[in-house]
Design brief:
Keywords: Bacterial flagellum, Cell projection, Cilium, Flagellum. By secondary structure, the protein is an all-alpha fold. Helices cover 57% and strands 0% of the residues.
């Protein structure tokens, strides 16, 4: 089973995120990683990838429940990937909210 790593622009600490598997992006245009890349497009791309991981896990869960899944470990791996990606997304959101609140508390 091939696992395609996520591609992130060179951000500090982003190298550790490369080991998270990404869903197949066939037919999608990958975001550019140049200096003109907008932060919002990176966030949307990450959310799309998270949705793809959860959809894959959900589809494999249905196949496992109906007895059509030959290798149950495929579901286990997909569910673990979706869980880790969800935890990472929630952590990033929490840190972004904390940073925003800290900026709002600054004296002008």
């Amino acid at each position: 089973m091939d696992i395609t790593p996520l591609q992130f622009p060179s951000l500090s600490g982003a190298d550790a995120l490369g080991s998270i598997a990404a869903p197949s992006t066939a037919g999608k245009v990958a975001p550019s990683t140049g200096p003109d890349t907008e932060f919002g497009s990176l966030v949307l791309d990450g959310l799309d990838r998270l949705e793809g991981l959860t959809d894959k896990a959900d589809n494999l869960a249905v196949q496992a429940a109906t007895g059509k899944l030959e290798n149950i470990h495929d579901y286990t791996i997909a569910a673990s990937e979706a869980s880790v990606a969800s935890q990472l997304t929630v952590s990033l959101r929490n840190r972004a909210v904390e940073a925003f609140n800290e900026i709002m508390r600054m004296q002008v």
